[in-house]
Amino acid sequence: MKFFLYLPLFFAFICVEMTAEEYVGVDFVEEKAVRYEGAVSVYVSYPSPGYGEWMNPGCGFMTTHGVRFNKIDFFLGASVGVDLQIPWFPVPALVAGIQPKYYFVDRSKTEFFVLVEGGYIIDGYGSDAGYVMPGIGVGFKLKRNQRIDLSLDVRTVIGDYVSADRPVVAYPHLAVGYRF
User: Fold this and answer.
1) How far apart are CA 127 and CA 168, in angstroms?
2) Pick from 23, 29, 39, 63: most CB atoms within 10 A?
């Protein structure tokens, strides 16, 4: 299960290495080099097909907090959230992970990003598993350091969380968030 925490850290290392060389000698006077960044988001999800009638669409809430490195357009944070199943919300699942995110910044009204989150999910029935969640998205500027984010992520849960017969399940997420 530790693999799911190491994969995002490996992604983070690669992003930092690739972009650090681009900014050697560049002077960034307008922004702090490192600053706090937080986000809250809501999402809807639907499991990949083949899991029977008991697998319904879901929704959830996620909050992420961490550090943004402005000179290399990179973010590293921790996320915590709650997954619920529609329409009957049986027992919520708790989700926690590490989230590196790389921004393709043009410093204007929009900001594109890629992310690879890895972590752990557990529900009230005692089922647990690791997960990896790659995603892409775009942020629309509201005010300085505030954005509305839209993202498409795919949480791939690996373990007996869903079924012993099918140990891997993918949940595409469509998320809307507020970043500050």
Assistant:
1) 14
2) 39
Q: Using one digit for the tens of pLDDT, what is the confidence trace for 114-170?
A: 999 999 988 777 778 899 999 999 999 998 889 999 999 998 888 766 666 667 778
Residue 91 is classified by DSSP as: S
Pairing verdict, β 58-69 and 34-45: antiparallel
Selection from 166, 136, 175, 149 nearest residue 38 by Cα: 149
> What percent of the chain lies above the pLDDT cut of 90?
44
